[in-house]
Fold:
Amino acid sequence: MNEKMKIVVIGGSGLIGTKVVNNLRQRGYEVVAASPSTGINTITGEGLADALAGARVVVDVANAPIWEDKAVLEFFETSGRNLLAAEATAGVGHHVALSIVGVDGLPDSGYMRAKAAQEKLIVESRLPYSIVRATQFHEFAEAIVASLTVGEEVRVPDALIQPISAEEVAAKVASVAAGAPLNGIVNIGGPDFLTFADLARTVLAHRGTANTVVVDPRAGYFGTPVGERSLVTRDDGEIATKRLSDWLG
Structure:
């Protein structure tokens, strides 16, 4: 591909977006970091047409500002429709989106339902596309453990989790954006399949706190019941290299 090819990164100022932008610029591409803070808003449409003019690829790694069930669904559906319509008008040839491993298997989660709706819009748009599904980020490990903490106990579900570094997720998204459309989904996860109990103990040890970890069949993932392998890659998943323990260290 032409190294001067223009790529627009929606959510380009966020955790993943900044890393995707930097990765693609290092590869020699012309990259627009698009977000409301730069005057480009996929909800209102502000600045969208100008940003997409001449773009060959659009990467959508934007996240919803509010995670309440109705609000998050409205965000991803409105943003998705506006963005895909603007891409069709601009003649964009490749739409890349970041999603979540297991997104279609947790319908009780409002956030997962919203991401599944986003994926559905992409597939039905008939634009050439690639969807990268990633497992939970190392950067969210502390928040996950905090969400499971009740008093002095960390009450965890009896399930597996496969943390991955945001840097490796961004590198995968950038690599897919630089290639031909997959017209399908690729899954990527971290190198370790940890139980939630192992995750909690690793984070607590790093933090230097002595909370008791309790496996509780009633515990969920941010309030949503999960099966043993709901949040991990299957046999077709790509495996990253950086372990949570190394990242914390």
Notes: The first strand starts at residue 6 and ends at 10. The chain has eight helices and twelve strands. The radius of gyration is 18 Å. The chain has one domain: 6-248.
